[in-house]
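Side project, low priority. Logging it here so it doesn't get lost.
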Amino acid sequence: MKFQMNRRQALISMGALGSAAAFGLPARAATRNLAVLHLASHAPSFIAFERGYYKDAGLDIELKFFEAAQPMAVSIASGDADFGVTAMSGGLISLAQKDAIKVIGGALTEQKGVTGAIILASNKAYEAGLTDPSKLSGKSFGITTAGSSFHFMAHKIATANNIKLSDIQLRPLQKLGAIVGALTTGQIDAWAIQPNVAKKMIREGAAKQIGLVSDYAPDYQVTTAFTSTKNAANERDMTASFVKAYSRAIADYNAAFVDNKADDAERDALAKIVHKYVESDSPFETAKQNLIEGAMRVNEGLALSLGSCVEQLEWFKSEGMVKDAITNEQLFDTSYVKTI
């Protein structure tokens, strides 16, 4: 069917748009994609989406799901997604050097005294003596890709235990699900992962806990918020609106699950939102308890732990995974949030 608009209809439409502007009504925003993973660390992404915080900020956001951090960075660089919240990867840093991506904030963080990423051993490896991270030499360790957060965590664990990283067999398995399967079946010996995944595996008898990443990297900025360089430079109002909306959800999440300042009704309401996207195959009460027990702090206002991020950048350089020439200014735009 072919639709046509005559001059009178066009003028009416133009008048309606003008009226909307005159009365201060927001024009319909273009749809923007937010790259996410099915992890509890992305809880604020889901909370802001379900509670309408993005819409309140004038953004029409859709969630775009991924299986690993590197493809998220590629998606932002290509324009398939506008924002992402995930670990700094070698791929992300390389894209920043090409002026395609900017890190604009910090999200999930390791904090001493708060259970963060858990170091796991397969049942087979545990029974063979892998009961502590100090025994990882000669063992295999699951990562998604070279230059991923899992790779960096392996480095921090190895360094703290005086183990050469080259003495640990890193197994790149691309997707989180593949690593879960490999650890469960004993095809790899160890892994480190956020508590909602780790505790589920422990609860189901699929793996054993042998340590905590926070013991080796207490101030590690695990995930960052990033967008395209174009958005950061030329779409400042939109980018600031995203930070504002996401920050509202962070405040909800921390109050309910980290600082225990929310009442039971609020905690349940938020847990139900997260359960739609994380551990949706588990009973709600089980998933809620796992979320509570495994909650990690997300930086208020998306504040960026710049020292930790620079440490990661320097490590990537030392390992030859990114070029030495990349500067902090190419990677970070610190104009949107507080640095800590």
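Brief comment: The first helix runs from residue 7 to 22.
Revisit when time allows.
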